[in-house]
Write a structure and sequence with these properties.
CATH superfamily of one domain: YVTN repeat-like/Quinoprotein amine dehydrogenase
Low-confidence stretches: 1-40, 465-509, 511-525
Structural class: alpha+beta
Largest sheet: 5 strands, antiparallel
CATH topology of one domain: Methylamine Dehydrogenase, Chain H
Helix content: 10-25%
Number of helices: 9
Number of strands: 30
CATH class of one domain: Mainly Beta
């Protein structure tokens, strides 16, 4: 495991504290005082409540303010039935589980000869989906040691797989590319190999009006909670709703003035949709009002550059957005405006492109009409649509935010304090996507270095702490063994050493030879 530390800056909405002064330029003591005042907001109280032990357990263990209770004391209190219920509450469970951050490792899940763009656990955590630029989408059975359950060879791709999504019942998977065609695959079939229209049918769902495959591309696609609809964001500045029962597009919204990079349903009702665009705005759409108005329910301003991803908290109220302005912002849709009042590109370098380094002179600039609740800084968002998420509700009470980054790392922030509590370093290139297991303290990261890696908890009873600086980066024990040019086999430590023992070579010698072989004949593209 390699972890590094960089103090993040946590900017709070100026309306939430009396001083009204910016965080920049304040002393460390002043900064802490500002944070303690600024956190008096509903989401901070809800987050703390979800991950705090029950009141009776707090009293019985003489819990100190802002200090976690040890697991041993929690178990003793449960056995003594201090909660009065004879069991842990969901808050008690989160209080214990949320301190186990998935920072050990990584262990190898898979790798190919092309960039990994997507990695997502299923809602119940039994499956993992990984998508690669070379048209491969693999579904792994988590409970069987990440064994490949389905190997999908996608069709009609343009450049890469931009997004994938499992249906709520986990029977179907949709994948998108820079075309108006979304393909749907039955992943519940018995065969492992799924070659498009050879071994299995990959049905094409046409989002275009005239069947023109060159008309636009799709960046984001999501199932509704009932599995009957798809919502998609496209580079023709629009949001599309596709009815799977009717097999047609039922709604097209000219939603933004630039590419719609990300869309998602706000909650399980499917009434509200969040969208983010390269026009720098986040918008909220209420489908119950669209027929009459055709306009967004509201606009949220604050980002200075395009939005790369949006993740909903699932409550129809809060969401986070990742942006090319190198920040994540937390939003409350109750603060949205009816219309956008200013163009944020006026305040930054309008010639900047996110394939270049972000200009230093605008890094700490703030939108004059910023409506966000909080801003999280420290990670880098360049070259691709990097994703961010809330940590799972079941195990952490959604008290963390985590994101991939251009600097090859995964960052984990505390929602309430804004502190960077973990930085996971292993990959050699951009981490575009990552996913925290919904139940266990396990996180998977997918990178442009062509690998998918797994991180787990350290196994002690310590609370997350701010990380200490490190001067060197050393690669953790992640072994990749390629046995021949035709096929690749990836082994964990035990398998490697078992094979090494059979051939009678030292592990160091064998691994050195294989790494030389890989870099010489099969370099990662």
């Amino acid at each position: 495991m390699i972890m590094g530390y960089a103090m993040s800056r946590f900017d709070m909405d100026s309306e939430m504290y009396d001083e009204g002064t910016a965080m920049d330029g304040t002393s460390s003591s002043g900064r802490n005082q500002l944070q303690s005042v600024a956190l008096d907001h509903e989401i901070s109280h809800v987050t703390k409540f979800r991950s705090a032990p029950s009141e009776m357990i707090q009293k019985s263990t003489y819990m100190k303010p802002n200090k976690p209770i040890s697991t041993v004391k929690m178990l003793s209190a449960r056995e003594a039935n201090y909660s009065g219920k004879g069991r842990f509450s969901s808050q008690d469970c989160c209080h214990v589980l949320s301190r186990y951050l998935p920072v050990n490792g990584p262990w190898h899940v898979d790798g190919m000869s092309s960039r990994a763009y997507v990695s997502q656990f299923s809602a119940d955590g039994t499956l993992l989906v990984a998508g690669f630029q070379s048209s491969n989408i693999r579904i792994y059975n988590v409970e069987k040691g990440y064994k490949i359950q389905k190997d999908i060879h996608a069709r009609s791709l343009r450049w890469t797989i931009t997004d994938t999504c499992l249906s709520p019942d986990q029977r179907y998977l949709v994948y998108a590319s820079l075309t108006p065609i979304v393909h749907i695959v039955n992943v519940g079939s018995s065969s492992v190999e799924s070659h498009a229209n050879i071994t299995e049918i990959h049905y094409g769902l046409d989002f275009s009006a005239d069947g023109d495959e060159d008309s636009f591309g799709i960046f984001s696609v999501k199932f509704s909670t009932d599995g009957r609809e798809l919502v998609a964001g496209t580079n023709d500045n629009s949001i599309y709703i596709y009815d799977l029962d009717a097999n047609k597009v039922t709604l097209r919204l000219p939603a933004h003035s630039n590419d719609v990079n990300t869309v998602t349903f706000a909650d399980e009702t499917g009434h509200l949709i969040y969208s983010g665009s390269d026009d720098n705005f986040c918008k909220v759409w209420d489908r119950r009002c669209l027929v009459a108005k055709g306009k967004p329910a509201g606009v949220l301003m604050g980002h200075l550059e395009g939005i790369t991803f949006i993740d909903s908290r699932g409550d129809g109220r809060y969401f986070i957005s990742n942006s090319k302005d190198q920040t994540i912002k937390l939003w409350d849709i109750r603060k949205m405006s009816a219309n956008a009042t200013s163009n944020p590109r006026v305040f930054t370098d309008s010639d900047w492109d996110y394939r270049m380094d972000y200009p230093s002179h605008v890094r700490n600039m703030k939108h004059p009409s910023d409506q966000s609740l909080a801003t999280y800084r420290g990670h880098s968002v360049l070259r691709t649509l990097i994703r961010c998420y809330f940590s799972p509700a079941y195990s952490t009470g959604q008290k963390y935010i985590y994101t991939g980054a251009y600097d090859s790392s995964v960052y984990i922030y505390d929602v309430v304090s804004g502190a960077l509590v973990a930085k996971l370093d292993y990959h050699d290139s951009t981490v575009r996507d990552c996913s925290w297991h919904p139940i266990y303290p396990v996180l998977v990261s997918s990178s442009w270095d062509c690998t998918v890696a797994r991180w787990e908890f350290p196994g002690d009873d310590k609370a997350p702490v701010l990380l200490k600086p490190h001067s060197e980066r050393s690669r953790p024990p992640l072994y990749i063994v390629k046995l021949n040019q035709a096929a690749a086999s990836f082994w964990d430590n035990e398998a490697v050493y078992s094979w090494v023992a059979q051939v009678g070579r030292s592990p160091a010698t064998v691994m050195l030879l294989f790494y030389v072989y890989l870099e010489t004949f099969h370099p990662c593209q």
